[in-house]
Amino acid sequence: MKISQLIRAALLSALLAGLAGPAPAESPHDRGPESRQESGDAGLDRAVAEIEQRTGGRVLSARRVERDGRSAYRIKLLTRDGHVRVIWQDAAGR
After folding, report:
1. Sheet containing strand 84-90, strands side by side
2. Whether pTM exceeds 0.85
3. 64 and 91 Cβ atoms separated by less than 8 Å
4. Is 35 helix (H, G, I), strand (E, B) or coil?
5. What is d(CA 93, CA 53) in angstroms, rounded to the nearest whole number?
6. Where are the residues of the annotated region Disordered (predicted)?
């Protein structure tokens, strides 16, 4: 077998493996050092629960950030129809 055939076979295998579908995504807000549970941000937990309930989507990531000099929540959401949206919520009063 020629080198070009080996490379072609390897590329085809890699392509087919990718088409099999992505592995289930781990939500950054569920695990790891930046998890909401470890940060103790109950307001962020409530905001995430509210967004998931209101939209029926699945939160992919959530974090507290400074936006325009104010504290806000940046919540990345996978909608029911498969689109990714970023939702901003003011963190004041939460």
Report:
1. 58-67, 70-78, 84-90
2. no
3. yes
4. coil
5. 20
6. 21-45
Question: The domain containing residue 50 runs over which residues?
Answer: 27-94
* β-pair type (58-67, 84-90): unpaired
User: What count of residues does the chain have?
Assistant: 94
Q: Does residue 77 sit in helix, strand or coil?
A: strand
Per-residue pLDDT 10s for the chain (94 aa) are 577 777 888 777 776 666 555 555 544 454 333 444 444 678 999 999 999 999 999 999 999 999 889 999 999 999 999 999 999 999 886 5
Q: Is residue 18 part of a domain?
A: no
Q: Can you read off the two tokens belonging to residue 3?
A: 């080198």
Domains held by the chain: number: 1
Residue 79 lies in a domain: yes
